[in-house]
Amino acid sequence: MADLRSNFVGIKSPNPFWLASAPPTDKEYNVVRAFKAGWGGVVWKTLGEEGPPIVNVNGPRYGAIHGADRRLLGLNNIELITDRPLEVNLQEIKKVKREWPDRAVVVSLMVPCEEEPWKKILKRVEETEADGVELNFGCPHGMSERGMGSAVGQVPEYIEMVARWCKQHTRMPVIVKLTPNITDIRYPARAALRGGADAVSLINTISSIVSVDLDNFAPVPTIDGKGSHGGYCGPAVKPIALNMVAEIARDRETAGLPISAIGGVTTWRDAAEFMSMSAGTVQVCTAAMTYGFRIVEEMKSGLSRWMDEKGYSSIEDFRGRAVPNVTDWQYLNLNYVAKAQINQDLCIKCGRCYAACEDTSHQAIFKEKGGKRHFEVNDAECVACNLCVEVCPVESCITMVRMEDGTDPRTGRVINPVPANWTMHPNNPMAKVAAE
Amino acid sequence: MAVKGPDIAGKRLDKAAYAANFADLHPPLTEHEALVESDRCFFCHDAPCQTACPTSIDIPLFIREINTGHPKSAAKTIFDQNILGGMCARVCPTETLCEEACVRETSEGKPVKIGQLQRYATDAAMETNAHPYVRAMASGRKVAVVGAGPAGLACAHRLSLRGHDVTIFEARKRPGGLNEFGIAAYKSVNNFAQREVDFVLGIGGIAIETGKSLGKGLTLDKLQKDFDAVFLGIGLQGVNDLGIKNDDAEGIEDAVDYIAELRQASDLSKLKIGRRVLVIGGGMTAVDAAVQSKLLGAEDVTILYRRGAAQMKASSYEQELAQTRGVVIKHWVAPKKVVLKGGKAAGLICDYMAEKKGKLVATGETCEFPADMIFKAIGQTYIDTLNGALALEGGRIKVDGERRTSLKAVWAGGDCAAGGKDLTVAAVDDGRRAAESIHAYLSA
């Protein structure tokens, strides 16, 4: 059996599946239930500074995008940080950590961008004996209007400054949670590193309006006729999160910076993908909010089975393995030639590949053979764009087959087994001259 | 106690059983079901389902319209090709048409439920009572349509749409043709056939005169004189005989007549049915008669068909429908002799049949089936009441691709026309095509 134990910047947990800072981790009741269900850790829902508690709207907080049969694909929320008194949260954190010593309990924090409030709250959190803190520089809605959350996360200098304060004022590991609502994720990650952060976690939610109610012309969720942008999460955001994690993992400055990955993790496979992109733990929220805490069972058993089948005994055996294969476009091998191939035994003759290729791509699919409905790739036109593969409703019916030798009928060029990329291409005015 | 004569009686069931037995065969899809089902459509290129539809409905488009929340747009897409799309959604043998061609049938054996989605859309549109079409400017031309069945109604609607005034002459007391008189009751509940007629007539410009047919108050000559064009959708009036002695004995009935009676019955318990029923034939009418006999409370119902399951005109789905309702289908038997008891039919002696060198022959062995009631459902024939005025082909009116007959300004379609499929949907297609041809003729 694969060993799923995780040690993330000194924070130990029996498995790498943590619940992200969000409604599921707002109080003892939920967190205890989550631990009973088998979650490896939680990031407690964000605490704010002492004082009158945060207030939330009393109308809908969530909006969603659904797929077939109302499968929830993307969720958006306008909920703020915890609206419970600080003291209550701290007491519960302390109690839970004491009762569940083997689980990771990290506390998410968001206070005004001044040294004193941070110093003050860190002391309070330390008293709970929590395993670490996560600085919420991510929430794009509500709190950002008050100069917190993503308002901090969008200014690398602030990130560095606050991270430095936190490292100064606490012995706990400091994780900086990054907002994706920024042009280049490497800048805030580098700032966190410069500030001394032990790790980054990403992504927080993406600024979004999920839909407009066409009867009253208001964004959804609608509060008395008005709506505000929310934070988007769930399966729909995973590709964005995966890219941002990869960017940090392969950046010269931030490579090796521990990452707790967040963003649409719904199955063991999502988790394995993030880990292959160097994540040490994954944080889950939407999947739990959709299906309940029990889904962690599948995540653990699925990851474990996959690791067993691949012969990986620990997460470290495959963590980061995909990072070296993420590169810039300019380094892709332009001498690699593939052609789409339609498996006629699997083809159900829906013609979607034809419609896609004929209308929107390269007119590289024949729709007839001997007067009969039959879909076949015309190698002389196929650029191997993969669109037909993606629109085909049958798994593995259309595949990309590499041309190992011979001549590409489209270009008339002989297949060159030696890789060559754009940096050496004759059409590139900046091309480096190939060695004679 | 000896039973005197055949056991034929009504009131075999209680009231609730009649209601349950003749309830909707396929209850309509709910909105959620329709959304989930419509999401299964792949929106195929040059979709095989559309090719398979005799009326060429743009099926992928209407399904997409359902999926995006506009069932009434979907209905319009359907009606554009098939104004009787509501009935066709209920009675089409989709399992041998669109749904057989569906690529999901190829891939997983579970086609998109096109028929049920079509019903979902057309129901949504017809509930509004708003007719979806506006007539073109009045052309001042008049067209006579003989027969208010699917072909005639479809033809009349399209002609009216194009601005022509239409008079439909119908032999029966009510319009609807086989939709009203010939289709199994559980396929068209809540008086749907009449509601659909009202919907079609909602376009305006169509008058119906009932109780009139060719030979009875109408002549083709007169129609030609009084109207600018004539469309004949007169169906088949003749019923094939068994061709054996005593095949008109009491207790032997035409299935089509019995189904018509059933469809018009206001109280099903008054309808008499035999305890043991035999149905002779292999088509939809045979299945409809057999299943309905069973639903009326007959104890044993057997379909006798002279060939095998594969040759039956009733689709395998229809055969299964019969079997799951307790009807026995006996293959390779053909009536040889009517068994009489006191002058009334009391059973059939049948030949066992076999196919030898492509020919159907009696094997010499026989078997006997006792019965209280026997239905003939061995096909209908065209009766030429026009005394050769129109050229025939295979015993039905000869028509070309535009459904023109051999006479100028006379068109024909539906079951009376040669080359037809004997399906409601094919009749509708004939009617629409003929109307467009008539319109072109009148506009020339």
Helices and strands in order:
The complex is a heterodimer of chains A (436) and B (444).
Chain A (H helix, E strand, L loop, with lengths): L5 E3 L2 E3 L3 E3 L8 H10 L3 E7 L14 E5 L5 E6 L8 H14 L4 E6 L5 H12 L5 E5 L13 H4 L2 H14 L4 E4 L8 H9 L4 E4 L3 E3 L2 E3 L4 E3 L9 E4 L4 H13 L8 E4 L5 H9 L2 E6 L1 H6 L3 H16 L27 E5 L9 H9 L4 E5 L2 E6 L9 H5 L6 E5 L34
Parallel strand pairs in A: 3-4, 3-16, 4-7, 7-8, 8-9, 9-10, 10-15, 15-16
Antiparallel strand pairs in A: 1-2, 5-6, 6-14, 11-14, 12-13, 17-20, 18-19
Chain B lengths: L7 E2 L5 H7 L9 H8 L9 H5 L6 H9 L3 H11 L3 H7 L6 H4 L1 H6 L5 H14 L14 E5 L3 H12 L3 E6 L7 H4 L10 H10 L4 E5 L2 E2 L2 E2 L1 H7 L2 E4 L5 E2 L12 E3 H10 L8 E2 L1 E5 L3 H12 L4 E5 L11 H9 L3 E3 L2 E9 L2 E13 L2 E12 L2 E4 L3 E2 L10 E2 L2 E2 L12 E3 L11 H20 L1
Parallel strand pairs in B: 2-3, 2-7, 3-4, 5-6, 7-21, 9-17, 11-12, 11-17, 12-13
Antiparallel strand pairs in B: 1-10, 8-18, 14-15, 15-16, 19-20
Helix pairs in contact in B: 2-4, 2-9, 4-5, 4-9, 5-9, 6-9, 10-17, 14-15, 15-16
Task: Describe the protein.
- The complex is a heterodimer of chains A (436) and B (444).
- Chain A has 436 residues and is α/β, with parallel strands linked by helices.
- Chain A is built from twelve helices and 20 strands.
- In chain A, helix 3 crosses helix 5 (156-169) and helix 8 (268-276) packs across helix 10.
- Chain A is globular and about 80 Å long.
- Chain B is of the alpha/beta class.
- Chain B folds into three domains: 8-22 and 239-379, FAD/NAD(P)-binding domain; 39-126, Alpha-helical ferredoxin (Fumarate Reductase Iron-sulfur Protein, Chain B, domain 2), CATH 1.10.1060.10; 142-237 and 382-443, FAD/NAD(P)-binding domain.
- Helix content of chain B is 35%, strand content 21%.
- Chain B contains 17 helices and 21 strands.
- In chain B, the strands form seven sheets. A five-stranded parallel β-sheet of chain B has the order 4-3-2-7-21, with helices on both faces. Chain B has a five-stranded parallel β-sheet with strand order 9-17-11-12-13.
- The model of chain B has no long low-confidence stretch (mean pLDDT 94).
